[in-house]
Design goal:
Length: 128
């Protein structure tokens, strides 16, 4: 059976990296939104693999950004997704329903999480 796919918004950030790691650990594939191609390399480095990750360039603040992603999914150019993990998106004024997580801790990609009290993205990945 083909694995389910998670669309991850903000995938190159501290929380996004945790979301990608969590999805892969749960045996899901990832469709990762990045703003620039170069960011994809940053994502692969922090996650530690390219396997199971499809990257798509999109700026979600542009009117056509997400629309193009959905059109490419419909056209079969990108994998269909069953879940969305959005980090940092403000969706309060839309009709999209999300389970939101409010953090009272600081998460950073493993390479940067050296200070006391800062959680590693690979540990926070358990939440996903
Ligand atoms: N880290 C924490 O512990 C923590 C705690 C509480 C709350 N939060 C909140 O959680 C959110 C994410 O935090 P973070 O630490 O992961 O932030 P971050 O490391 O700065 O990452 C932000 C992510 O959002 C992407 N992004 C920004 N604007 C975008 C746009 N217009 N279109 C597409 N992607 C866009 C960035 O992509 P690029 O790589 O292209 O820049 C990056 O992947 C923030 O709202 C933050 O305030 C974080």
């Amino acid at each position: 059976m083909q694995s389910e796919t998670v669309l991850v918004v903000g995938s190159t950030g501290n929380i996004g990296v945790a979301a990608v790691i969590g999805a892969l650990r749960a045996k899901r594939s990832v469709l990762a939104i990045v703003r620039k191609k170069e960011s994809a390399e940053k994502l692969f480095k922090h996650v530690g693999t390219k396997e199971g990750i499809t990257v798509v360039e999109a700026d979600l603040t542009s009117e056509t950004g997400m629309l193009r992603v959905v059109k490419d999914v419909k056209a079969g150019k990108l994998p269909a997704f069953q879940h969305v993990y959005a980090t940092g998106s403000d969706l309060r004024d839309t009709n999209i329903c999300f389970n939101e997580v409010y953090l009272n801790l600081r998460v950073e990609v493993d390479e940067s999480a050296k200070q006391n009290g800062v959680s590693k993205a690979s540990d926070f990945a358990e939440c996903y």
